[in-house]
Design brief:
Chain A is mainly alpha-helical and 113 residues long. Chain A is built from 3 helices and no strands. In chain B, helix 7 runs antiparallel to helix 8. At the A-B interface, helix 1, helix 2 and helix 3 of A face helix 28, helix 29, helix 30, helix 31 and helix 32 of B.
Amino acid sequence: MEIVMCFVIGFLFMAAVYLMLSKSLLRIIIGTGLLSHGAHLLILTMGGLGGSSPPVVAPGVTDYADPLPQALILTAIVISFGVTAFFLVLAYRSYQELETDNMNLMRGTEDHD
Amino acid sequence: MSFVYFIFIPMIAALLIPFLYKKVCGIHTGWFVLVIPVVLFGLYTTLLSNVQHGESVTSSFEWIPSLNISFVSYIDGLSLLFSLLITGIGALVVLYSIYYLDKTREQLHNFYVYLMLFMTAMLGVVQSDHLISLYFFWELTSISSFLLIGYWYKRDRSRFGALKSMMITVFGGLMMLGGFVLLSIMGDTYSIRELIAIAPELANHEWFVWSLILVLLGAFTKSAQFPFYIWLPDAMEAPTPVSAYLHSATMVKAGLYLVARFTPIFASSEWWIWLVTGIGLLTLFWGSFFALKQTDLKGILAFSTVSQLGLIMSLLGAGAISFHTGIEDNSIFKYAAFAAIFHLVNHATFKGCLFMIAGIIDHETGTRDIRKLGGLMSIMPITFTIAMIGSFSMAGLPPFNGFLSKEMFLTGMLSIPDFDFFAFDTWGILFPIIAWIASVFTFVYSFYFVFRTFTGTYKPDFLPKKAHEAPFGMLISPAILGLLVVAIFFIPNIIADILIKPAVAAIQPYLYSSPEEIDIHVSAWHGWASPELWMTIGIIVIGFLLYWTLSKWQPMFEKIPKWFSLNRIYDKLMDLSETGTHRFSSLYMTGYMRSYLIYMFTAIVVLTISTVFIKDAFDISFAMLAPIHLYELVIVLVLVAGTITVLTAKSRLTSIIALGSVGYSVALFFVIFNAPDLALTQLVIETVSVALFLLAFYHLPKLNRHENRMKFRLGNALVAFGVGAMVTIVALSAHSNKLVRSISSYYEDTVYSEAGGGNIVNVILVDYRGFDTLFEITVLALASLGIIGMIKLRLSKKKEVNRNENK
């Protein structure tokens, strides 16, 4: 399964990078969303997908899924959510102020000073 | 007495000068400053007798003891000679500047602060025995010279000249630092004396030639040697006392000092002898030839300085030959070092004097253009007399000191072909020929300088001011120097015993154990049989003929094409560094975020993938894999389909929904792979995120609300594919090379017994690794505060409102 997941994650990364290279601000943020999904799945996969039961202590169970990557991913999810929310509001504000979501139009010019 | 502290006296005095300038308005600030060089000169003369017997005076104080860096003042013949020149001519220049600079119109405090700073720097350069402190003072001379050249900072030409000299001398200074560092690594010491003591070992080191060339670059740039002389003519925008002091007598001789000081270390190398002698001679010829093209008095003097510095440089190179031949037949090359030092002293006297004359003419007539001047002899008789003494000495005529040193120069050059090392016996014959031609030109421009200015017709209409004789005070300094010029001719051997022999002994420490052993006697008369006499007669005859026909052939200089000039190369270089680098940076700094992202991604991909393949790290192992189930594959398909929809969606709404589906399938993965907490969090957060995306989407400005599919771009696709491939390759290789077991069994074993919990993930988050959680909370708090700030704060709007109200 891990090998399949490696390819899925690679695909997610590819899609994310492709979106981040586009000129629409919203697509760039969607790209970062895909990128964080890819990263989270990568952490999970690298921790190993074995284990027959969730990491909650239960009598008679010995084969838990690895809890450490899960804790790391949980932290990462929350942080990426905070950053994504911030970026979205930033994008929303820049729509309001600059009236564009085209990255090429937001480019600074030579004689901005 | 600790002489190392005396170096800093001018610098400390410089701190007081602005106060004196502000408080004591009635008296010209220069009078207070004058005390310093005079006192220092007196102090250094007390060392003359010590040095004459071959003793040296050393004192030091520690600067950075842990790095073995200290200020060491080492005064031997060479250092003392330079120290006396610096303080002596410094005193005369300060005296001259008192009359030259007006106390009401000029920023005198600036001038004297820079000048005193420069004096400290020069004293430091010539007395330092420590390579790093030598470099420190060396750069201080560059900086203070920059300030002095740009003294009239409102003029464009001053700023240009200051910048040019700064660029060139600092370039050389940095090269020199490189040479010093190499030397100190090779010799494992910073002390020049210790390096001299182990010079034969250094010569075999592989870096020896590199350090030699780097040190020479420093010396050549500072001493205005070919092709670095170009800053000197432009430095003539400085006030004339500065030109007289820095650009004739002291700073430009720092390079000569450096060559003389390092001769015992480097003289064993063929490179040293060829470079120093050859470049010196080339500079001598080039400078003397182009001096005749100049129409500005100070321009002529600048080129003549360049040329005379070349002369001294070539003599120092020839003096280095004495390290190679046996004691019997090298007597002639000892002459070269002696002549170099002797001419150095002579040049300082007559060139300082001539610069002051040029300043007087400028001051009294308002112009330095030689085409407007003429017939000043009867108006300014004293000035004329002094100018004639200086010029004739420069031309090498008796009874002035230039004659003596020129004779010795010719002697040294004539004996170079006798030297049968390093191909000197074949090419050496060129040396006396070039030297002789250059001397002829020297003669011509000396005459050109003095007679075009003082004889001929007086042209009062061209002169901005009515010409009259200079005030007495202004004439004192050039008169003293003029007297020295004559005096040295008549008493050369006294000067030689006191000053020059100790200096020569410092340059050639292997040959003499004390200065008294040097058996050179200067004589003005060599007898009819000597070739030098006939060469001098030739110089005078040919030079006189050339001067006589000057107006016929001087226009030839105009025919030299404009591009054939080193200034042009310098300008091009500066232009290239400005526009070229600007063009280069605007080439890749496009301002588009896409370009920068492409650079970053490409760099990461290329570096990572090539590392993986170069190190042969790619590996796939099929051991220890989890089994594949059908529903897992279904979710994979859903996720991939969602991602493709995101990529190809026409409307933004579709892509946001598709992103949501990707997020939910990730949550499903978490469910399948036994991560209930993750699944929970992922579901909630994906929901909130999608809501936020929709919010941002809803508020799109109306004018841009046309929907279109993302255009396919091959470049983007390639980069994206590269990143995806890189991630897959790295993930596969990393997964296949697990080196150590997970530490999670510890958590599983102790979660209940140590932490009293059952949910291992939650216990890790709040107990084992609680700090992470604390700061993750902080991140969320900051993000929410930031969002509030962005939405609530409207500074730019408020400003606009205010502006409208004001209207």
